[in-house]
Amino acid sequence: MKVLVIEDNPVNMKLLIEILSTEGYETLQAKNAGDGIELAKRENPDLILMDIQLPGMNGLDAMRLLKGNRGTAHIRIIALTAFAMKGDREKFLQEGFDGYISKPFRYTDLMDLVRSLSRDRESTMGG
After folding, report:
1. Domain spanning 2-122 has what CATH number?
2. How far, in Å, are 42, 53, 102 from residue 112 at the CA level?
3. Is the pTM for the entire model greater than 0.90?
4. Measured in Å, how far apart are the chain's first and last C-alpha atoms?
């Protein structure tokens, strides 16, 4: 399974890539929303981990563009945010994200969500 991480913080990026690689996922990286959108269109990942606070375009707007594009609308997208407020999870899910993780995250919480969305995708794709 291919996972695209869109994250501008190098420490967070390294951690996420290391975790996903260790768990056997193929990983792609982008440091901003524009590059992430282009990579998603070109590589068709199964899942995207999207930071919300990105330079230029924020993660919410990037998710809307991806979900609004026929070629990328099927990709599951998890919101990652360090600015977790009460009600944020529900807000982001209502906006169209498929999952939500606040930073700092717990390894098990991240992997449980990634696995859950992977299984959901496989069952809807007939795989």
Report:
1. 3.40.50.2300
2. 27, 23, 14
3. yes
4. 12
